[in-house]
UniProtKB/TrEMBL annotation:
It comes from the Bacteria. This is Barstar (barnase inhibitor) domain-containing protein. Belongs to the barstar family. Residues 4-90 form the Barstar (barnase inhibitor) domain.
Length: 113
C-alpha cells in the first residue's frame, strides 16, 4: 500500500512532488500529467512495487484528495483518469500473460528510453 498525502500542497506541482516521492519515481520525472502517465505506464507494463506472483500491484491510498480537487479540479480528475487507464492496462497485460509482466526495469525507471 502506498499512501499519498495530496492535501499538503496548494498546487498541482506540489501534488506531483508528493507522488514522485511516494511512488519512488526517477529523478527525470517531469512533474506533470504526461510524465505521470508515462511513469505509471512503465509500472503497468514492466511491473514493480509487488514482486509476488500473486500480487495485485500497487494500492494507492490518497488522503485529503478533496483539497487537491478543490484547488486543481482539472488536474485532480486527470490524475484519477490516468490511474484508472493504467490500472486497466496492467489488468489486461496480466490477464493476457497470466502473470505480472516483468520484461523490463522494475518501478518507473526508464524515463524516455
Amino acid at each position: 500500500m502506498i499512501r499519498l498525502e495530496t492535501g499538503q500542497g496548494n498546487t498541482e506541482r506540489d501534488t506531483h512532488r508528493a507522488m514522485a516521492v511516494a511512488l519512488d519515481f526517477p529523478d527525470c520525472y517531469g512533474h506533470n500529467l504526461d510524465a505521470l502517465n508515462d511513469c505509471l505506464g512503465d509500472v503497468a507494463c514492466y511491473g514493480g512495487y509487488d514482486d509476488a506472483p500473486e500480487g495485485a500491484g500497487p494500492v494507492l491510498v490518497f488522503t485529503d484528495y478533496d483539497r487537491f480537487a478543490t484547488t486543481c479540479p482539472r488536474a485532480a480528475q486527470v490524475v484519477l483518469d490516468i490511474i484508472a487507464d493504467q490500472a486497466r492496462r496492467a489488468a489486461v497485460l496480466r490477464a493476457a500473460t497470466g502473470r505480472t509482466v516483468r520484461a523490463g526495469p522494475s518501478r518507473a525507471r526508464r524515463c524516455g528510453t
